Amino acid sequence: MNRTRAWExxxxxxxxxxxxxxxxxxxxEETDKYLTARDLLExxxxxxxxxxxxxxxRNLATFVELGxxxxxxxxxxRNFRMHCEIDHHHHHFIxxxxxxxxxxSLCPIxxxxxxxxxxTIESHKFEIYGKCPQCNG
Length: 137
What we know:
Blueprint: H1 3-12, H2 19-29, H3 37-47, H4 53-65, E1 69-74, E2 77-82, E3 91-95, E4 101-104, H5 109-115, E5 127-130, H6 133-136
Parallel strand pairs: 3-5
Antiparallel strand pairs: 1-2, 3-4
Helix pairs in contact: 3-4
């Protein structure tokens, strides 16, 4: 997802373009890494000293709801990144040290479905956490 597409989605749902939203989206567009509300607040406080976590979380929740951002949780904290525009089903390896994200095309759901006869799987999420080659070195 890029910022232009994100604004198309926001406008289609009646959201106005604001400087704060633009800055948040630009931060996500500039990285493939997951960002936290704390990461955003550190940058936004420079231009908006009165910025609060509530304002950031409201925007993040809107972006997740509209499919602009993906959300995950690790180390007890919610993390966000731009929604992947890859059109095939995939999962991610997330480096816990530097935050780099690598696409993983393999999906274990087929094997799990065989282990759950009679069950209907409606959704799933599979993420791998560890250290990337650069952080391992």
